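Box 3.1 — From sequence to structure: Bifunctional metallophosphatase/5'-nucleotidase
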Amino acid sequence: MSATPQKNRAARRVLAAVAGLATLGALAAAAPAAAGAQNQGHGHGHPKPRTVDVQLLSFNDLHGNLEPPAGSAGNVNEIQADGTVKAVPAGGVEYLASSLRTARKGNPYSITAAAGDMVGASPLLSGLFHDEPTVEALNKIDLDVSAVGNHEFDEGSAELTRLQKGGCHPTEGCFEKGKKFKGADFPYLAANATYEKTGKPVLKPYTVWKKNGVKVGFIGVTLEGTPNIVTAEGVKGLKFHDEIETVNKYAKELDRQGVKSIVALIHEGGAPASDSYNYNCDSPGPGDGISGPIVEIAKGITPKVDALVTGHTHQAYACTVPDPAGNDRMVTSASSFGKVYTDTTLTYDLRTKDIVRTSVKSANHVVSRNQAKAQDMTDLIARWNKTAAPIAGAPQGFISADINGRGSTAPEKPLGNVIADAQLAGLAPADKGGAQVAFMNPGGIRSDLVYAASGSEGDGVVTYGEAFTVQPFTNMMNVVDLTGAQLLTALQQQVSGVNEASPKILQVSKGFTYTLDMTKTGAARIVTDSVKLDGAALDPAKTYRVAMNEFLGGGGDGFPVLGQGANKLVGASDLDLFNAYLAANSTATAPLAPPATDRITVIK
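Predicted structure (token representation):
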């Protein structure tokens, strides 16, 4: 991408820049002697400042959530002064835009960056239109740069390229009469995603932000394991490379170009010891309160990189992890769905062109809904909602109370049970596949079913838009033959191998039960003789018909054994089965109640 969009954004902030530079000059002139040593000038008159503060605003994992996320998915936890934790409603681009615009005031050097998954697994308002509304919103928010995440590959590299460069959808055309999709006016960075045939990155590997002699380089990568969590079709023809090696390679290239200030945007993350956005993960010592893949990545990335903006785990943290030279370096993440943004101060030395690492400060802030909405975002949402309304508002079923999916932290989720039951019900008939059991991956449950009305439909009514938000991938369903031994292996893969550090507990249909013993480690966590189907012990030698979405059917999420199924039958989409189940099992007078969670017995 040319530098033009960045220059345009800089022009929009020119008045603030002039005022800010004047202020900096005045501050330098009035600074005490100690500070003056840091701000030596040449000749007579006011000395030039030695350093300027660059503001880095960042967020991650928006997932097309233009409207405030519903239910528990729309809350962030906040530690109060007395130590208690309070759930605070947050998010929605109307508020995110306002928060970012307010934060930029008085900061002449302000950059806004994102760490991937801006799109994909999106609510219907964005997903129905292949996330064009989200890209439009990000353009208006003045996003300067973003890494790609795994979900940017959900529809393949060609669609990702279209999101960057623009043009109407190849099969569905233009969604608004007389309007052609312009694409992202910020660079999407994909340094470690390359084409198998050419070895070249799918998109630019890095970009350099420039203003008044200040230069900051950004390198963007997604997690190396992207092929494990995206459908095979989405990553067809692509290779994904090691995050550390890739960032170090391009940091060296930027350094050779004279770019000494570098930020890595990494779509991989960690797990803080607390899920509160304002938890101090540098307690009791630097980085003590965070674990997960990002810690080792941070420890391996060259000291040439001054800060890491991360994502993927949907957690909020701002803490320091030592670089290979043993110096503390800031590592941040801003929750998900636009509920939090990070404000980082990078002190830029005008002489060395590098960041003064010891001066880097960072904090996460809630995107509060108790502020004025950004009118341009309100208008954008209203415009796209009008286009989506005929589909989005159609009733699909009725519920008697919230049925939590994404908002549940338990291994067995109420909404996971509903989805698995829906898949079994739709695929059990002999002519539909003859399924005896259904498995659902927990990461594919993108929201909760919320009892309170989201619009004019009334409380307890599940609309198509709400069902789509829960199941936005429209994965086709598969029914395959697997032996009892293979099913046991699948259960063990939930808690071993690539999933041992962060278990992925499959949601199972009614009649399938087992015990999960978390006091043990690895595959031993599955109590073998507890696994039963309809009350009968699982027979290792017997063949079972198993339903699952095509993502799991391809071995996704660290379940390679599920990709070994035989006699595959392709059925309807997961969303179609979900909606059909709601219609068949609920009415206004007999709504669907949250199911019991008694299929997986957990020993802690």
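Summary of the box: The radius of gyration is 25 Å.
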